[in-house]
Amino acid sequence: MLNVPIAVHLSTITPAHCIHVASTTISGIPYEAQHKTKSPIPMLARKLADAGVETSTLLQVYRGSTPILRQPLALSYWIGIDVVDDDRRPARVTKFKPFDVSAFKAA
Question: In Å, what is the CA distance from 105 to each residue of 96, 100, 101, 102?
């Protein structure tokens, strides 16, 4: 079976909000993730995995019609990372850490 990359489109909601959006459509079903300070691509990858897309599936990311990476990367790569960007330092790749609800006690 051929592993044809899924096209993921990256855009920004402007002017005031600067919210980054990653979106794709698989079998007619649209998927979207957005965030202000993190790359939405890993979040979209986790949504796709939750929807049953195989983790070996490749993602090719585009801004407009231009690919932003030289080659597609596996869904499994995107699932395991977060790309964090803020005003104080350049964007950096970090390991994904799920939010632990049990770490907070109810008041």
Answer: 23, 11, 9, 7
In a domain, 85, yes or no: yes
The residues near 17 (Cβ < 8 Å, ≥ 6 apart) are 36
Distant-in-sequence, close-in-space partners of 37: CB < 8 Å, separation ≥ 6:
84, 85, 86
Query: Is 20 within a domain?
Result: yes
Place of tokens 């005031």: 16
Q: What is the pLDDT of residues 43-89, one digit of tens each?
A: 999 999 999 999 999 999 998 889 988 899 999 999 999 888 777 88
Let me know if residue 41 belongs to a domain. Answer: yes
In a domain, 27, yes or no: yes
Domain count for the chain, please give it: 1
**Whole-model pTM over 0.85:** no
DSSP 8-class letter at 70: S
